[in-house]
Amino acid sequence: MLSRQLSASFAAMNDAPHVDSRVLVAGAGIGGLCLAQGLRRAGVGVTVFEADPSPACRGQGHRITLKSAGVQALRSCLPPELYALCLATSIRPATTMTFTDERLTPRFSKPIPALPPEEHLGVNRLTLREILLSGLGGDVRFGAAFESFDRTADGRVLARFADGSTATGDLLVGADGTGSAVRRIIAPHAELEDLGGFVYGRTTITPGLLAWLPEVLLDSFNRVTGPVGAMSVATCRRHTPAAGPGLTGIPDYLAWTVDGWPDGPPTGARPEELHRLAAEMVGGWHPAARRVVAEADVAATFAVRLRSALPFPPWQAPGVTLLGDAAHTMSPGRGEGANIALKDAALLAAEITAARPGGLAAAVARYEREMFAYAFEAVAASRDHPFAPRRR
Predict the structure, then answer these.
(1) Is residue 12 part of a domain?
(2) How would DSSP label each residue in 235-262?
(3) Where is the FAD-binding domain (predicted)?
(4) Cα(230)–Cα(93) distance, rounded to whole angstroms?
């Protein structure tokens, strides 16, 4: 499997104590990797540093729905063959939008018009990350958690990592997620709003499952609301049976979420406990809703904490910037987080690539002005009007 191959190849390359690269990226999530692909494609030197010890050390979550902004970002940053692989390994789109009560009685339902892949693309998180890692090789260093940075005598950025390594670059990009260590240094005034959380699970699709699963839960964008709690079920079936050359094979599955706890599910709970809590929340609901949870892969159950960035003044840190959740984490109700992170990556890559000699600071400033405008508009919409998807 590609994850194991990547782990071995990256481990062999992660023994250099110092790296000198034009752009340093802290965080190998989809935003940081998309940026790296875009810069590498343009011939800009870039190195990505990731805290995880290997690409395969933990799960990557389940489905992501990419809208126009996210798809266009991938197309602009990826080599054509990798973009084509994203399309080839995509997930069938939802065909209806449905909101029901706990007995699966529809309260609202309408068809979702078919959209071209350039405007709407379902992808599996692990598959997308493996594609984004493809070809980067020694440009990604695992086991290197960002800790701090200083300025060099010539005005560059010297980054330090927990493994003792260092790196020098013209620009440091914090793409290290909601708990960003880079953001804590350059924007200590930034605050996050806690919105609770939910339990995320996965149930493998088998012929037997399709025989009893109601149509209202199949290939739909749905929200099932009970007297207490709510549930959503996303169908994740690939367009083609093959996963793609060298990629980890992933069977078709239902990705479901259950929420309704006032403070979210307990922090640190094991998968078995989270699965039990989800089953209890939907107890007494329609038998199909209960069965989706009951037949889940218990070990793949995990909790997601919902946080939303509060607006804050731009940071003043020449040579350092942020993208994705590190800058503007948002609730997932509208499915915008990954799309905005990819949009950030494509915009920043374009600005850096087009910068004239000596013009990197101005290019980054342009990126930050534009990013702050569209990203915090999306943050507010995701927080205040979830479950009302928009196309961008």
Answers:
(1) no
(2) EE-BSSS---TTSPP---EEEEEEE--T
(3) 21-185, 313-371
(4) 22
Task: Give the CA distances from residue 39 to residues 71, 75, 139, 181, in Å, rounded to whole numbers and listed in that order.
Answer: 17, 13, 11, 23
Strand partners for 117: none
Number of domains making up the chain: 1
- The whole domain housing 221 covers 19-384
Tokens of 32: 């940081």
- 5 assigned to some structural domain: no
> What is d(CA 209, CA 375) in angstroms, rounded to the nearest whole number?
39
SS3 339: helix
Q: Which residue has the higher pLDDT, 241 or 106?
A: 106
Evaluate whether 171 touches 152 at the Cβ level (below 8 Å). Answer: no
pLDDT digits 0-9 by tens, 105-157? 999 999 999 888 888 899 999 999 999 999 998 899 999 999 999 999 999 99
Domain of 186, CATH number, reads 3.50.50.60
Task: Determine the average pLDDT of the residues in 201-215.
Answer: 95
Q: Looking at the domain assignment, is residue 392 inside a domain?
A: no
What does DSSP say about strands 106-111 and 96-101: parallel, antiparallel, or unpaired? antiparallel
Q: 11 pLDDT exceeds 70? A: no
Q: How far is the C-alpha of 226 from the C-alpha of 305, rounded, in Å?
A: 21
Work out the pLDDT band at 248, boundaries 50, 70, 90: confident
Alpha-carbon dihedral of residues 361, 366, 369, 375, nearest 10 degrees?
-110
pLDDT at 2: 47
